[in-house]
Amino acid sequence: MTAVRPDIAPQWAPEATDFPTGFVWGAATAAYQIEGAAAEGGRTPSIWDTFSHTAGKVRNGDTGDIAADHYHRYRDDVQLMKQLGLKAYRFSVSWSRVQPTGRGPAVERGLDFYRKLVDELLEAGITPVATLYHWDLPQELEDAGGWPQRVTADRFADYAAIMAGALGDRVGMWTTFNEPWCSAFLGYGSGVHAPGRTEASSALRAAHHLNLAHGRAMEVLRGQLPAGTQTSVTLNLHQVRPLTDSAADADAARRIDAVGNRVFTGPMLRGEYPEDLIADTSHLVDWSKLVHDGDLAAISRPVDVLGINYYTPTLVSTPAEGAGDSRNDGHGASDYSPWPGSEHVAFHLAEGKQRTAMNWAIDPNGLYNLLMDVTRDHPGLPLMVTENGAAFDDYVSPEGRVEDPERIAYLHGHLAAVQRAVADGADVRGYFLWSLMDNFEWGYGYSKRFGAVYVDYASQRRIPKASAHWYSDVIRRHALPPADHS
Ligand code: IFM
Q1: Distances, alpha carbon 257 to alpha carbons 254, 270, 315, 342, 424, in Å
Q2: End-to-end CA distance of the chain, in Å?
Q3: Active site residues
Q4: Is 416 helix (H, G, I), strand (E, B) or coil?
Q5: β-strands 428-434, 24-28: how paired?
Q6: What angle do CA 386, 392, 397 make, to 5 degrees?
Q7: pLDDT per position as a tens digit, 102-145
Q8: Going by CA atoms, what residue is nearest to atom 9 of ligand 1?
Q9: How far apart are the C-alpha atoms of 430 and 23, rounded to whole Å?
Q10: Where are the domains of the chain?
């Protein structure tokens, strides 16, 4: 089964050296990471407000209360995007800003913020790309059970209807969820993300209800949005590789692929949960009760584009019996695993690779392989790299500049990988750099800087880093400079 709408089949013929005509150049952010204004305009706490205000959950006790103050500075931020030549901007909506209790009528003041943001973007010639959910569930819905509860999917569909009604006339591309893997497995499995629960079976239940919510929202969006509006979901697909060619390591890779990737791509793109995932996890959930009649048909409603977020590959092995496992999976330290049913898998850092400030190995081939794997498994599916980028320990020089040659090299390598994948047949429609600006990096607070634009949090001054100027040049040329011009 293909998940592609035939009416938006590729319009262009990829060339080997340039990016395809119409390739979208963008940058991405998320509401809780940049907006601030946590208690303004009727907004109520989301699970991330509660989590970040809980002692010991976020590095340095940082919270998103103020973040990059984008709520008040969005006009200037849009002007900055315009100066940089961005063609598209991917943002997310804070659910509790527009529907504070997660149910019932919307708050106009909340909707107005997004209406004004979108109008400003359109005025600047920048295409808005709206994500409905980037991890910030209204706290009231978590208090009622959160994503492990089926009813949360119904609430999400109502919220999608509100947003489609408010912005449907001016937003041409919608994403239901950003990285539902993190919401389910870091939020309810390892607990390193909000709401911080460590319940393996709840994590799997959450994954199904996030899938269901995606499907329900797709139905709403299709019903309400004008013809031609693009719909998508963004997954952080893990580029899983076995450490050795042993059968045991191949099995570790299969397991992590199942609970890291196919738990979403299975139902969304094939209309079924993988049999091996069900076998690996049947001691934790009864899938026959969890998945109701009609769920899979709803979840597999075709998307126009699949968003892919990629940062680093995932290298795994099966440790010798009794050797214990490793939580070194790059997703934060916890005594609990975010891989239910596959706890006895060890994660490794690729040797001989440079690392980012997150200690993630830099490997552009991983992005190439991922795009090609998805293309092989789902032929004809249009793809969009909706996040890619790196954190480094950036600082402002005495001359007031931020030089970040490592980030430029990272972006160069990964964009070249996209180019290669396009030349080899992947239908990649665009690239969104993560992130437009430095922001609240979840459990790491403000200690990690992913932005192309530096944010001085004390003054909220924005300073485009050297990489922002480099990216701007790439966008203008619609091509990469020669490697020695990084
Ligand atoms: O900052 C996050 C983003 O919110 C989701 N994808 C990964 C980024 C870097 O960790």
Answers
A1: 5, 15, 11, 10, 23
A2: 41
A3: 179, 387
A4: helix
A5: parallel
A6: 125
A7: 999 999 999 999 999 999 999 999 999 999 999 999 999 999 99
A8: 441
A9: 5
A10: 24-481
Residue 228 falls in which region: left (phi positive, over 0), alpha (psi -120 to 50) or beta: left
**Cα 315 to ligand 1 centroid, rounded to whole Å:** 19
**Cα 171 to chain centroid, rounded:** 19
pLDDT in tens, 299-311: 999 999 999 999 9
pTM: 0.95
Question: Which residue type, as a one-letter code, is found at position 244?
Answer: T
Encoded tokens for 266 = 């299975």
- DSSP, res 184: I
Based on C-alpha coordinates, what's the Rg of the chain? 21
- Ligand 1 pocket test: pick from 238, 360, 441 the residue with the most ligand atoms within 8 Å of its Cβ: 441
With a pLDDT cut of 70, the percent of the chain lying above it is 94
Q: What is the C-alpha to C-alpha distance for residues 177 and 233, in angstroms, rounded to an integer?
A: 5
Kindly tell me the burial class for residue 59, based on how many C-beta atoms sit within 10 Å of its own C-beta (0-12, 13-18, 19 or more).
middle
* pLDDT band at residue 187 under the 50/70/90 scheme: very high
Q: How many residues does the chain have?
A: 486
Task: Report helix angle 108-123 to 70-84, nearest 10.
Answer: 20
User: CA-to-CA distance for 370 and 375, rounded, in angstroms?
Assistant: 8
Pairing of strands 127-133, 173-178: parallel
Q: What are phi and psi of 408, to 5 degrees?
A: -60, -45
230 phi, psi to nearest 5 deg: -90, 140
Nearest CA to ligand 1 atom 10: 441
Nearest to 268 by CA among 374, 135, 192: 374
Angle 364-377/405-423 helices, nearest 10 degrees? 30
Taking 3-state DSSP, the helix, strand and coil percentages for the chain, each rounded to the nearest 5, stand at: 40, 15, 45
Q: Which H helix or E strand runs over 347?
A: strand 346-348
Question: What band does 485 get if pLDDT is binned at 50, 70 and 90?
Answer: low
**Cβ 84 vs Cβ 464: under 8 Å:** yes
Q: List all residues whose CB is within 6 A of at least one atom of ligand 1.
A: 30, 33, 179, 309, 387, 434, 441, 450
Which residue's C-alpha comes closest to atom 1 of ligand 1? 441
Q: At the topology level of CATH, where does 24-481 sit?
A: TIM Barrel (3.20.20)
- Secondary structure E strands in 382-480: 383-388, 428-434, 453-456, 461-464
CA 92 – CA 46 distance, rounded (Å): 14
